[in-house]
Amino acid sequence: MKSGARNFAAAVGVAALGTATLWWGSDGFTAFTSEAARRLSVLENPRPLPAVALEDQDGRRFTLQDYRGRLLAVEFIYTRCETICYSLGTAFRQIRDQVPAAALGREFALLSISFDPGHDAPARLRDYGRRFGADGGHWRIARPADADGLRALLAAFGVVVIPDAFGGFEHNAALHLVGRDGRLEEIRDLDAVAPFVAALGARL
């Protein structure tokens, strides 16, 4: 085999190996990022969620399992955030306003969870709730009761939180839907309010 032919054959082999590796590592080219992989994994295999103790803006203790039988929208925030968390709060308010009033509380609820529990005491959670119109009933603002619970929740939802250089956090942001059986079923972009509400409407 001539040198040029050998080089061509080697290049084809390397390209084929690279393509096969990318196919395997990206779920058949459908998940090129960890965030896409997280969403695809949840759609294909809804995740059970841990019975973590939470404390809401009124100091009441509860767990995600208290919502069984209802659909639940979940977001992860911290109250000092003025950027992406503001967008999340706005998206949740839009969802709340577009869901039929008769379904709120009975068939559907919203829950904002702070991943900064050391700073976000109930008073700060209340302030955040007032900012977006969270009533503490249909829409609660809460924090994990302890560090182990926080770690378990972040792991179950696939939320990544990294301290930044300014005392805040970098984190992935999305709208999470927990089904009536208490499992995480779907994850959508925070600006996908309309399809999120449409999916809810078909199930309420």
Automatic annotation (TrEMBL):
Belongs to the SCO1/2 family. This is Cytochrome oxidase biogenesis protein. Disulfide bonds join C81-C85. Pfam families: SCO1-SenC. Keywords: Copper, Disulfide bond, Metal-binding. InterPro entries: SCO1/SenC, Thioredoxin-like_sf, Thioredoxin_domain. GO terms for molecular function: metal ion binding. It comes from the Bacteria. CDD domains: SCO. Cu cation binds at C81, C85. Residues 43-198 form the Thioredoxin domain.
